[in-house]
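Hello forum,

I keep getting stuck at the same step: I have a sequence, I want structure tokens, and every attempt I make locally crashes halfway through. Rather than fight my setup again tonight, could one of you with a working pipeline run this one for me? It's a single chain of 359 residues.
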Amino acid sequence: MTITTGAPAPTHHTPLALARGLLTGAVVGASLGALVVGGIIANAALFTAGLVLPVVYGLLFFLAGMPRRAREAAVVPRTALATIESLKAVGGESSDVSVRFELSVVPDDGPAYRVEITQDVNLVDLSDYRPRGVVVVQYPPDRPWRVRIVKRPTPEWEDRVASAHLDPAPVTATAAAPPEGCAFGFMVLLGLLIGAVTVVLLFRADLFDPDDTDAAQPSVSSTSSTTVVTSGSGTITLGPGQSFLDKGELDRAVGSLTRGQDKRRAITVVVQERMLSVLFSPPDTQAPGLDPRALPYDRFPALVEEARTTLGVHAPTWQISTDRLTGPLVIRVVVTGPDGMASLEADGQGRVVRRTPAQ
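Reply #2:
Ran it on my machine without issues. Output:
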């Protein structure tokens, strides 16, 4: 029996235990990394692997520990008398109460020692346990801190309890489970980092350089502009110093978004200073749409200039939206500035049909 009289010596410091800690941390890190990365890049297989990996590892860990648990179960526990030094209810549910006991265990073949345990006690039996009372306990010979109170001892041990007068064990003689130690915790943390970083590195191309079917093609008008085309929309963003009011810029941009899709129609076309967005009509839809290539883009600069200078909004930002949701084609120019917001509307040929000055 090992009784500690100071700080218990660390355990889990053998090479096998440290390797197990590293592997456990790596599995946890890889699982978390797979869940996060799989969710970001929409990889269902990777996300599922993040869920399955810890389950498989836990099953293997359980199976690998079965021989050890069988050996431990085969060890005959030792029985001894113990004195209750103190007890305190720490919680419980229904008819059972969790009680923290401090016991002085007095083995027949060894020195007395103290131990703290927590054990569930039925409310009906709670009155049987009191300070300085004597109880029968059992514990594994090689783990004296794993003490359990025997609730129904044999008649022989009941007779010994009735006639026992035990002295309290010194506080310095305490049996406790050895701590895991810093090395084991460090290996778990190291394994967690290794697992997470490994997943990120394996899928770094998908994370930081996505190249899927919805990805952008190269810039249409400048190496500093970007184009993103999906099945339902297209967006072009120009680089600094460029504008969609520059001559021919809109025609080139729309041509790049509709290339190979001559009959593709759009629900709306939105133009800002450096951004063009086209929302395409779903395939086989009967909803009204417009041909994005047939808009009077050469009239857009003049419409923006008129809106900025005649509607009472000074130094405004602007946006053009084009649609035909409820009738004929409408080109709407909205300007916003310190004086408020104003707008004008034009028809399909770019002729102004309505003005709404700032209020």
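The CA atoms of residues 21 and 185 lie 7 Å apart. If your local run keeps crashing, start a new thread with the error log.
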